[in-house]
Amino acid sequence: MTRHACIDPKHHVHDGAGFVAAVERACHERSLRLTPIRARVLGLVAAAGKPLKAYDLLEQVRVGEGAGAAAPPTVYRALDFLLANGFIHKLQSVNAFVACHHPNAAQHSVPFLICDNCHIAVELEDVDVVATLDAQARTLGFRPQAQTLEVHGLCSNCAAD
Fold it and tell me: Is 150 helix (H, G, I), strand (E, B) or coil?
C-alpha cells in the first residue's frame, strides 16, 4: 500500500516543540544548521494547525522577539531554508506554509486537501498520485521539475455544518 492509513493532519506532527525536535535531529544527521530564528519559524508553522502566511509569521516572530526585532528578509530566509530542506511545504494557491509530516524524508511532492472554510490543509500521503502525474507528463514529452497539487473544498467538519 502506498498511501499511509492515517490521513489525520497531525499524524506525524504531534506538537510544535516535538516537530522542532525531530527537525533538529534531522538537521544534525544531515549536517544542517537550524538557527534559533529558523527553529522559531518552524515551531510557529508546526504549532499553527493551519497554513500560515509569511507576514503572519513575521508578526508572530516580532511579538516573541520584541516589536520590530525581525525584518521580513529574516523570516523569508528562514522559510527558504526550511523549504529547501523539505521541513515545510508552500501551498501555492493560498501563498502560505505548512509543516511537512515527514521531517526525516527527502524533499518530496505531495497533494494537499485545503478547506476553503476553516483553512486546514491535509497532506495526502499517496505516492501513486504523484507518480501518475509524473508519468503522464513524461508520456507527453514534458519533463516535470516540480509538482503542486492542491484540491480545494470543504473538510469533513465543515461539510457537516
Answer: strand
- Torsion-angle region of 52 (φ positive above 0: left; ψ -120 to 50: alpha; else: beta): beta
Q: Which three cell numbers stand for residue 5?
A: 492509513
Among all chains, which residue has been given the C-alpha cell 515551531? Answer: 43
Q: How far is CA 136 from the centre of its chain?
A: 25
Euclidean distance between CA atoms 126 and 136, whole angstroms: 16
Instruction: Could you please state the CATH topology (level 3) that the domain comprising 16-160 is classified under.
Output: Arc Repressor Mutant, subunit A (1.10.10)
Number of neighbours of residue 43 by Cβ within 10 angstroms:
21
Q: Tell me the domain boundaries of the chain.
A: 16-160
Backbone angles phi, psi at 123, to 5 degrees: -80, 115
Q: Please compute, for residue 39, the number of CA atoms within 13 A of its CA located in the half-sphere on the CB side.
A: 15
Q: Judge whether residue 10 has pLDDT over 50.
A: no
Tell me the pLDDT tens digit for each residue of 95-125.
Answer: 999 998 777 666 577 889 999 999 999 888 7
- Contact between 10 and 122 under an 8 Å Cβ cutoff? The reply is no
Q: How far apart are CA 146 and CA 159, in angstroms?
A: 31
